[in-house]
Amino acid sequence: MGESPGCYRKSTAGRGVAALAAAALLLSLSSCGVLAEQGAGQRSAEAASTTAASAPPSSAAPEVPAPSPEPTPGKGPVCAAVRCVSVLVTGDMLVHAQLWDQARADAAALGKPGLDFTPLLEGQREYIGASDLAICHQETPVAEPGGPFSAYPSFNVPPQIVTASKDVGYQACTTASNHTIDQGTSGLVRTLDALDAAGLQHTGSYRTEADSQGILILQTDAARIAVIEAAYGLNGQYPEQAWQVDMLDAPAMIAKAKKARALGADIVLGVMHAGDEYASVPNAQQQDTAHALVDSGEFTMIYGHHTHSVLPIENYKGTWIVYGLGNGITELSPWYVVNNEGLLVRAQFSQDAAGKWQASDLAWVPSVIVRDPYRWCSVAADAPQGPCAGAEADAATRLRTRTVVESMGAAAAGARELLISGER
């Protein structure tokens, strides 16, 4: 993530949490939103909190009651709790040649040189704006701005996709995937450099071993949100160093989650890049890993991508697991209609009276990629832009998505379709 050891770097995700009750917690906070694990001999956030908690009270000063937490309702639906925050997540940003051709045409239409992917992503902006934090998945390495570019099987895509992601409102992206080292270490580093230049936080792949030990914690007005991501494999390739990409391993992810909690994370998101391509059900690895993460008690929600298809949502022991978000963007496949579809999910988290955070609302949006021109397009019941591929095709996509999403009991557990018209 580019953090120096012991450095607290300011996040783009919010203005910082309001002052909390105890002095111990005040000392554990920093003005930065990304917390790196401290090196040997350096004081961690946990140690700072412990030090503050053990300091003897002054005998001269009278006891002052702790103030009540400042209400932070967040941008999601009406929330009864004092502190609430909403997080939006989407699937693979999978850029093929058709999409960078479209970005070149869109830039030219706007009288700009180069490529512009913002029109392709524009439909996501309104949904992102209705959340406190938005996280994308940068599936592939990026090239230099002028190329050369390449698509499947060894991706090297235009970095302008990263600036467009930032432009429509994303604050962070995960980067561990089966394509992370398609262009070796140089491609991995170039991608992280592009994300840094755009002002997007990231996790899943790393420049240095010290960075790989860090935890991405994003600061919002109400809560500190940790993101822990890992990929099932690297298409038979091997990184120069094992620490360059986080691989899917429940114990390792749980250890990182515990570290995140020690660093002050309120909410921990587990992210899996895994599954069988074009499937409609999660495979055994996905289910076993997700259930193990939930059983650890360290994770607040689990979600995933990779299959290029929408997968079910499950409520397992009170914790949401979104097995597959499909594609955030991609070209149109003539063979797999599910490849052209995706899922946008927004989870609202609230803090109960005991201080525990949990998901109080989970909502999803079905989407499809259309062409002439290529665009991401919502097919929700109140889709703000109107029809995507036509009323009949949109209805079929919506029904297919709902059928899969609800196939493991999501609707009965409270998951619902996100309707922008009902959120304002």
Describe the structure.
- With 424 residues, the chain is an alpha/beta fold.
- The chain has a single domain, classed as Purple Acid Phosphatase, chain A, domain 2.
- It contains twelve helices and 17 strands.
- The chain has helices spanning 23-28, 45-54, 97-109, 118-121, 125-129, 160-167, 184-198, 209-212, 250-262, 284-295, 391-405, 410-413, and strands spanning 8-9, 34-35, 84-93, 133-138, 172-174, 201-203, 216-219, 224-231, 267-273, 301-305, 313-316, 319-322, 327-329, 341-351, 357-370, 375-378, 416-417.
- The strands form three sheets. Strands 3, 4, 5, 6, 13, 14, 15, 16 and 17 form a nine-stranded mixed beta sheet that branches. The chain has a six-stranded mixed beta sheet with strand order 7-8-9-10-12-11, with helices on one face.
- The longest helix is centred in the middle third of the chain and has 15 residues, at 184-198.
- Mean pLDDT is 87; it is low at 1-60.
Brief characterization of the structure:
With 424 residues, this protein is an alpha/beta fold.
Topology summary:
Blueprint: E1 8-9, H1 23-28, E2 34-35, H2 45-54, E3 84-93, H3 97-109, H4 118-121, H5 125-129, E4 133-138, H6 160-167, E5 172-174, H7 184-198, E6 201-203, H8 209-212, E7 216-219, E8 224-231, H9 250-262, E9 267-273, H10 284-295, E10 301-305, E11 313-316, E12 319-322, E13 327-329, E14 341-351, E15 357-370, E16 375-378, H11 391-405, H12 410-413, E17 416-417
Parallel strand pairs: 3-4, 3-13, 4-5, 5-6, 8-9, 9-10, 10-12, 15-17
Antiparallel strand pairs: 1-2, 3-14, 7-8, 11-12, 14-15, 15-16
Helix pairs in contact: 9-10
